[in-house]
Amino acid sequence: MVFLIAYVAITRATMNPYKEYNFSRFMQEVDNSGVREVTIAESRVTGYLTTGERFRTYIPMEYPELLNTLRRQNVIITGEPGRPSTWVSALLSWVPFLLLIGFWIFFMRQMQAGGGKGAMAFGKSRARLLTPHQKKVTFKDAAGVDEAKEELREVIEFLKEPQKFQKLGGRIPKGVLLVGPPGTGKTLLARAVAGEANVPFFSISGSDFVEMFVGVGASRVRDLFEQGKKNAPCIIFVDEIDAVGRHRGAGLGGGHDEREQTLNQLLVEMDGFESNESVILVAATNRPDVLDPALLRPGRFDRRVVVPRPDVKGREGILAVHIRRIPLASDVEVSIIARSTPGFSGADLANLVNEAALNAARMNQKTVTMEDFEMAKDKVLMGAARKSLIISEQEKRVTAYHEAGHALVATMTPGADPLHKVTIIPRGMALGVTMQLPVDDRHTYPRRFLEGQLAIMMGGRLAEELFLDTMTSGAGNDIEQATQLARRMVCQFGMSKLGPLTFGSQQEMIFLGREISQHRVYSEDTARTIDKEVHALV
To answer: S-S: 233 plus which of 147, 278, 371, 424, CB 3.0-4.6 Å?
Structure first.
């Protein structure tokens, strides 16, 4: 900074090449024919002497005869528009220097705001803090997960009254792992715990820890736990922890050193928690099988809370929460909607209510009717109708027979789910859809039911052969699903002449969590028998 100031001062000192003359000497030089040319700008006169020297002077306002005198001496005269005042000129000359100082101050403040963690604060935690004064989420907003809420109520008691447990030698759990399919409300439950306990809530995604720069993830983990300890009692929530907590030293193509360093730092920080710090780590994942065993051991994640898809009663409670914000018609029955949406998660039900409200608004209705919910359910389950798709009459005829075959077999098969809707209006990627809706939630499937599903899947192809004497590619997806189901019945469920045996062990890619190969741990003769059994089922 000192060098910059000196540079500007020297530059300004050397920027004045004129020799200052008073007006009397200037007129003396004019009378002696010593002036070659002048440039006049308002009261300022600059120019050259006959010797080549540059000069500058100023004209008194009471001397109007200057131009006549100069013309008599054959001096070259040039006019110049007026210039800004001296103060304005000085200010303009300092503008670049002031901008440089301002930029330097701004950069230093940004560095200080980043906590001194390095350039651009790469090591600063990206966790978002929700304080108790902000909008709260409570257990009233999380419906359909009663068992999970009961497990988490104890965590709230730990945060509110830790002495109650410590005086009996109990230890506050350091971590709670929420496990469940996507959309079941794991993040909502974590926020509800913080809202019920009335404590600060730090929220961050597992992917926010990992960067391309080595050491950044570990630094962010340290910073996150430091913030948590400063705001204790509090809850730190890590969503999708499998992004940073996967098995170490596994997977294809080598490990990711930065990710493993981040995981190691997370393990160290969780070990460094003291029972009296009242900081609880809550994490959520839908892939607990890929997490590192060191992360799951007691002392780190002491509790594992399963958040499953809701049953009929749970779906009814979730719908009751979401429909509070929309005006309902008198014909809407929440219990019927809940029974007709088996397998829906909390996010699916929220989307269903939103689609119904949008459909009612599209029709300029004042309330949301049962018909709107039916249309929304069809859109969610089968996709949006593509009414503008141009289909030939022959393809319509084939599609109609195909879907009629599915519907007829579904109606005639004992124990099959009731038929809900049959349409040849293209929806999603399909030219037609035959949809069944279960009466109850199923958790186990009898062999007879699965055989009925195979028959329903192949009903479309059978109708094409019987009534049209042809086969089309429209049954391709049905055949693929039927083959997969039959192979699972033989190789996983033990529903064949081979007996209650499992054939084939799957190898999974740790980083992607997907099946990449299947080891054959059986002979060629057994493989041929499996193929025969699959063929017989289909």
So the answer is: 278
Report cis status (omega within 30 of 0) of the bond before 233: yes
Tokens standing for residue 370? 């049962």
Is the pTM higher than 0.70? The answer reads no
Place of tokens 């730090």: 202
Question: How many C-beta atoms surround the C-beta of residue 36 within 10 A?
Answer: 15
Distances (CA, A) of 267 to 210, 212, 293: 15, 21, 11
- Identify whether 533 is a catalytic site residue: no
- Give the 3-state secondary structure of residue 165: helix
3-state secondary structure of 155: helix
Whole-angstrom distance, CA of residue 196 vs CA of residue 150: 13
Residue written as token pair 């749970």? 314
Residue 473 to residue 287: CA distance in whole angstroms: 36
- Reduced to 3 states (helix: H, G, I; strand: E, B; else coil), residue 131 is coil
- Mean pLDDT confidence for 38-65: 79
With b meaning 16 or more CB within 10 Å and e meaning fewer, what string describes 466-476? eeeeeeeebbe
Residue 405 pLDDT exceeds 90:
yes
What pLDDT, on the 0 to 100 scale, is given for residue 407?
Answer: 93
**Rounded-to-integer distance, Cα 475 and Cα 456, Å:** 12
- Banded model confidence at residue 124, pLDDT cuts 50, 70, 90: low
Q: Which of 281, 322, 318, 321 is nearest to 303 (CA)?
A: 281
169-194 pLDDT per residue, tens: 777 778 889 999 988 888 888 888 88
Would the pLDDT of 257 be above 70?
Answer: no
Averaged over 320-339, what is the pLDDT?
89
Q: Find tokens 């929806």 and name the residue.
A: 427
Active-site annotation holder among 29, 196, 240, 403: 403
Q: How far separated are the first and last CA of the chain, in Å rounded?
A: 83
Phi and psi (nearest 5°) for 184? Answer: -90, -5
Q: Please, how many CA atoms are within 13 Å of residue 182, restricted to the half-sphere of its CB?
A: 2
- Take residue 207 and report the two structure tokens written for it: 């992917």
Q: What is the DSSP letter of 464?
A: I
| CA angle centred on 208, ends 512 and 241, rounded to 5° | 50
Q: Please give the pLDDT value at position 214.
A: 62
Q: Is the model's pLDDT at 518 over the cut of 60?
A: no
pLDDT(367) > 80: yes
